Every structure is written in C-alpha cells, then in structure tokens.
C-alpha cells in the first residue's frame, strides 16, 4: 500500500492543543454572580448571549484550534492563534452586557475557567508556532508592540468595561496607577541597584578567584532564603536603621514600606547579576584574548572592547532573570506595606473577592511576560552585534 504524498502530517503539540481547547469549550466560559464576593454560576460559551452573536465567535475559536493541526505549516498555526484570541475576546464583549441585563444592580460577570483554559491553549499554540517560524528579534519586537497596542485599544475602548475586574479597576483607578508606579519602581529600581553593585563585583570576581570563591557561596545562600522570610528579615534591620540613624526615616527608611521590600529584592538579584557577569566574561575565547594582548591592549581595554561585548548576551540573560523574578516577587511587598500590585492581591484574599485578586495578578503576569520577551530580544541582538563587528 502506497501512502499518498498529499497526506497532511499533524503536529503533536497542535493535536494536544486542539483536544485541550475543544475540551475547554465544554467548561463554563463566563460566570455571573449576585455581587462581587459570592461565587458565580457558570455559563457555557454558546449561552452567554443570543445564538446569532455567540455561534460565530465559537466557530472562529474552533477554526483557530483546527488551524493549529498541520505540522508543516507554522504560519497557518500562528494564524490560528491570532484568529482564536480575538474570538475569545469577542465572546466576552458579547456576553458581559447580555448576562448583566436584568441581573440586578450589584451583579458581576467574570471570565470563567473555560475562557482562561482556552486563552492558555492559544498562547501555547502561539509560542509553538513562533518557535517553528523562528522570527528575528526585530520581527518579534514588532509582534510584541502590535499585541500591546491591540490590548491597549480594547481596554481603552471600554468594550470590556462590564467585566467585574474592570469594574474593580474603575473604582480604584487612582490607587491602581499609584500601585503600578510603585511596582515598576520596585522591579526596575532593584534591577538597577543590583546591576550597579553586581557588575563591578562580578568583574572583580572574574579577576580574582579567591574573591569569587568567597562571594558566590554567600550570594547563593541568600537565594535559598524563602522570599517571605527575606522580606520579614528586612523589617527589624531597617526598623533599627530608621531609629538609630538621624534622617533615615525622613528619606523613607523604616521597618515597613518600600525600603525593606526594595532591599530584599536587591539581595535576591545579586547572584544572577554577579554569577552571569563572571560566566559571561569567562566565556571569552582564549584566542580573542591572545589577539587583544598581541595588539597591546591593556586589561581595561580588553574588558571593554573584547570580554564585555562577547559576554554581553550572558550578562543580559542574568538581568532578564532578575527582572522577571523581581516583577513577581514585588507582589509580596504588599504584605509589608511596600505597595505594588500585591496590595490588590492581598486585599482580594482578605475580602474573598476573586476579581480584586485578578486586578493585581493580571497586570503582574502581563508585565512579566512583556519583560521576558523584550529581554530575550535584547539578548539576541547582543549576540548579533559582536558577530557583525567581526565580519
């Protein structure tokens, strides 16, 4: 028996994603509750609004899942993800006002587990398709910018304003903006401080084996301390500093608040920065160093002109680890008065308000994903620049 050469090969991940996606369609797509605290009742995807509004969106979602099946057509699979995600959002836009109609003044509608599962499936399909296409860093940057612009346009339009999480945002707009700036300050500020401290320390550790042998184990030990314990340890230390040193409290150093959270994040960040700096500088080929010496370069010139450019991708990888890690860890700062998105997460936990938790969790996840993709682009660009320079 001869197999037809036109028989289409199926992607194993695509088959899995399609099966999971079709199964997720059988889960409640949205929930409606009498108020923001009580548990909601699940509503299936084809029941959230009138059939004429829901079935086309369901058909788009199913089509997107099926487009992810061909193994040899990664662009088609990418198109399936790009088609399916707007279909998910369209169902939310149609379903929220329809479910709220006549439901009562305090009724709330939220995405259900079916929506979150389908969103995860399409995100995995998107990542798998992009791995097959392998776009360059500039193309990925353009895709990221387009995705962020599309998300911003949808949120700005108010099309999803009936969702409970956006109603929580509407009532806490000023607090959200303040928390966002505080979260960015914790994440990027601690990254900057760790880079200022860790890069010179990493260079010294690279030059001196004895210093490296003493420093890296200490920084590794700091990484083993649980995050909540680290935040707790900073409280008595900075409380003593705030009372013992004149003027310390005037600049914000106290037992609770921004300062202990910031210091804890800096301590967590030092090992990836120092360790990757040492690894990046050590990865310089011996032949390149010998050529630099033969040209009469001083140790400082070799560092800046040879070792650092060649080790930059590894060093940036360490910064990527720190940034994504600190965006997540900054949530815990809400427990000690450090602010950030963790404030909403812990308020929601105390009030048993799921949508308030999501108000803190969703922007944290979005920020971490955006930071990870952007840093990956910078790492790849750093790999290209030295190669271009040697041609």
From TrEMBL:
Q: Where in the cell is it found?
A: Cell membrane
Q: Does the keyword Transport apply?
A: yes
Which ranges does the record mark as transmembrane? 43-66, 78-100, 112-134, 141-160, 180-204, 216-241, 247-271, 303-323, 329-349, 356-379
Keywords (alphabetical) are: Membrane, Transmembrane, Transmembrane helix, Transport
Q: Which CDD domains match?
A: TM_PBP2
Tell me the membrane topology, using the record's own terms. Answer: Multi-pass membrane protein
Query: InterPro entries annotated for this entry?
Result: ABC_transp_perm/SBD (IPR051204), MetI-like (IPR000515), MetI-like_sf (IPR035906)
* Domain annotation ABC transmembrane type-1: ranges: 180-375
Q: What is its main location?
A: membrane
PROSITE patterns the record matches: ABC_TM1 (PS50928)
Q: Which SUPFAM superfamilies match?
A: MetI-like
Q: Which domain of life is it from?
A: Bacteria
Q: Which residues form a coiled coil?
A: none
| Pfam annotation, one family | BPD_transp_1
Task: Name the family the entry cites.
Answer: Belongs to the binding-protein-dependent transport system permease family.
PANTHER family under this entry?
Answer: GLYCINE BETAINE UPTAKE SYSTEM PERMEASE PROTEIN YEHY, GLYCINE BETAINE/L-PROLINE TRANSPORT SYSTEM PERMEASE PROTEIN PROW
Q: What is this protein called?
A: ABC transporter permease
User: Species name for this entry?
Assistant: Roseinatronobacter alkalisoli
Origin organism lineage: Bacteria, Pseudomonadati, Pseudomonadota, Alphaproteobacteria, Rhodobacterales
């Amino acid at each position: 028996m001869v197999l037809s050469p036109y028989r289409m090969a199926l992607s194993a991940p695509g088959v899995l994603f399609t099966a999971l996606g079709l199964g997720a369609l059988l889960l409640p797509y949205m929930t409606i509750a009498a108020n923001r605290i009580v548990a909601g009742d699940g509503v299936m995807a084809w029941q959230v609004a009138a059939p004429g509004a829901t079935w086309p969106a369901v058909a788009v979602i199913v089509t997107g899942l099926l487009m992810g099946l061909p193994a040899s057509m990664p662009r088609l699979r990418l198109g399936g993800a790009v088609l399916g995600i707007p279909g998910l959002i369209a169902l939310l836009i149609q379903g929220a006002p329809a479910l709220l109609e006549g439901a009562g003044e305090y009724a709330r509608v939220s995405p259900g587990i079916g929506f979150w599962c389908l969103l995860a499936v399409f995100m995995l399909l998107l990542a798998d398709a992009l791995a097959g296409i392998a776009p360059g860093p500039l193309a990925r940057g353009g895709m990221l910018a387009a995705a962020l612009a599309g998300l911003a346009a949808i949120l700005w339009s108010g099309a999803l304003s009936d969702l409970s999480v956006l109603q929580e945002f509407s009532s806490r707009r000023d607090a959200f903006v303040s928390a966002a700036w505080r979260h960015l300050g914790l994440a990027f500020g601690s990254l900057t401080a760790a880079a200022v401290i860790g890069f010179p320390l990493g260079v010294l550790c690279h030059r001196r084996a004895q210093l490296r042998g003493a420093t890296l184990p200490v920084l590794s030990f700091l990484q083993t301390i649980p995050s909540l314990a680290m935040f707790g340890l900073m409280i008595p230390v900075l409380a003593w500093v705030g009372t013992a040193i004149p003027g310390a409290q005037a600049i914000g150093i106290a037992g609770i608040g921004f300062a202990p959270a910031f210091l804890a994040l800096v301590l967590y960040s030092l090992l990836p920065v120092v360790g990757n700096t040492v690894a990046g500088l050590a990865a310089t080929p011996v032949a390149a160093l010998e050529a630099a010496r033969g040209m009469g370069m001083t140790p400082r010139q070799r560092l800046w002109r040879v070792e650092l450019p060649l080790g930059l991708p590894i060093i940036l990888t360490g910064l990527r680890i720190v940034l994504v890690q600190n965006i997540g860890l900054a949530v815990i700062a809400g427990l000690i008065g450090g602010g950030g998105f963790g404030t909403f997460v812990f308020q929601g936990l105390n009030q048993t308000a799921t949508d308030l938790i999501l108000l803190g969790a969703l922007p944290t996840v979005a920020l971490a994903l955006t930071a990870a993709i952007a840093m990956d682009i910078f790492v790849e660009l750093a790999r290209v620049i030295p190669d271009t320079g040697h041609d």
